[in-house]
Design goal:
- The protein has helices spanning 20-29, 53-68, 79-88, 166-180; strands at residues 2-7, 33-38, 43-47, 74-78, 99-106, 127-131, 134-140, 161-165.
- The protein has 181 residues and is α+β, with helices and mostly antiparallel strands.
- The chain folds into two domains: 2-78, Alpha-Beta Plaits (2-Layer Sandwich), CATH 3.30.70.1280; 81-165, Alpha-Beta Plaits, CATH 3.30.70.1260.
- The strands form two sheets. A four-stranded antiparallel β-sheet has the order 2-3-1-4, sandwiched between helices. A four-stranded antiparallel β-sheet has the order 6-7-5-8.
- Helix 3 packs across helix 4.
Length: 181
Amino acid sequence: MIYVALLRGINVGGKNKIDMKVLKQTFEQVGMNDVITYINTGNIIFSHNSLSKKQQSRLLEEAIHNDFGLQIKVVVRSIKDVSEIMNAIPDTWKNDKDMKSDVMFLWDEIDDESVLGNLVIKPNIDTVKYVPGAILWSVDKKNMNKSGMSKIVGSKIYKQVTVRNVNTARKIYELMQAQNG
């Protein structure tokens, strides 16, 4: 089975620095196969056949702590999970000069549609959708300062997500599909 591990808060602003080549070795040493990394922000595609996603997360968090001395949250999603998320993203969503579109991958503890009730969503500004495993958000960049979702940073929910822009999320899925052969 093909999976992606999404690490929260590495190589951002000079903090929690992790070399992707060394991280790849860490994954291989704990039994993950066909390991590839994508950009420096902690996106690792791999295959594994025996452990559950929760077991993989725990094993990888422990290995990262042992190898790098960092307490990093690892969200693991299967290719099926990511496929469902990608299918829920409208084709028109982009991350470019005019539009900001993000995928907020949720920790399992808050992965429920009720999480939307804890967000500040301005219906005429923000487009927000829940799909199992993620919150999808898009806003015209000209309305960023009016967005309710921009206030998520620093909130309790923000500490329980790892965010990828829609372009990165699509590339991760493309790499997972290539691994799936």
